[in-house]
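Journal club prep, notes for RB
We'll compare a predicted complex against what the paper describes. Inputs for the nicotinamide-adenine-dinucleotide case:
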Amino acid sequence: MPAAPARPVLLTGASGNLGRALARGLAERGWTLRLTDIAPFPDPLPERARFERMDLAEGVDLLHLAEGCGAILHFGGVSTDQPFNTVLGPNLQGLHHVYEAARREGARVVFASSNHSIGFHERPGQANDRLEADCTFRPDSFYGLSKAYGELMGRLYWDKHGVENVNLRIGSCFPEPTDARMLSTWLSYADLLRLCEAAVTAPRTGHCVIWACSDNPASFWGADHRARIGWQPQDSAEAWRDKVGGITSGNPVTERYQGGGYTAKDYSRDTPSPRDAFALD
Ligand SMILES: NC(=O)c1ccc[n+]([C@@H]2O[C@H](COP(=O)([O-])OP(=O)(O)OC[C@H]3O[C@@H](n4cnc5c(N)ncnc54)[C@H](O)[C@@H]3O)[C@@H](O)[C@H]2O)c1
């Protein structure tokens, strides 16, 4: 296990599902954490941690909270498909505050991006050609668009200011897979914890993008920058195949694209047609 970082690590979204798991797991590894969220922290505060409640959109306070931190694990914000104006404050303005704080502190950003930034790529066909991390953004929602913006913000801050950032394109991070799509996209909590640990402690990262899913044989995703941080997932969704392999939506849009249900929500093109009808895509 790598040594705990020398400087404190700031975790946004600490009161959320993934934030709570990370706060617990990283504290157990001896890390000194600063936790923040717009919602109260629902658990007993871990050792060496302090919590401050704040709205990312009003983030001047974030500059103070980040003082002295060596890394920011940015997991806060709108985490589901919502109208543009709901996404705007936390995910676009809030992200800018996070990057400004990182620039001032010389800190690295680890950003909880999402598969929904590329959700309108089709699922791999017979050839099983897995999507590479430098593929075109094809967001499937305003939420997914905010994640593409977040990754590009990282690109800008690395190129212009040398702020290192690791962008985790998270698939489906839940206690266990619950449908057939998650046999491809599932990320275990334990693999997420090891991924965040590697992303913060790697000596150098530059700007990089990593498919954050477990070692699933049915994964949609291929090459990325994981070698740069020395991370390999250890879990696999395959053990749940018998239980969830038959659970599909019955919706042709959902089942066609990687982003699943997010692609079908508010979909207003003509009824999906054979693949070659979208030849202009
Ligand atoms: N869980 C997954 O499968 C998954 C998949 C892809 C990406 N992600 C990303 O990972 C991160 C964490 O996901 P999660 O499942 O824990 O979501 P979550 O909704 O449980 O946690 C998000 C947290 O952000 C906080 N938040 C929302 N608006 C805020 C604001 N304006 N200021 C400060 N805090 C605010 C919420 O209170 C919440 O505690 C999110 O960025 C999400 O987009 C998660």
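Talking point for the session: The mean pLDDT is 95.
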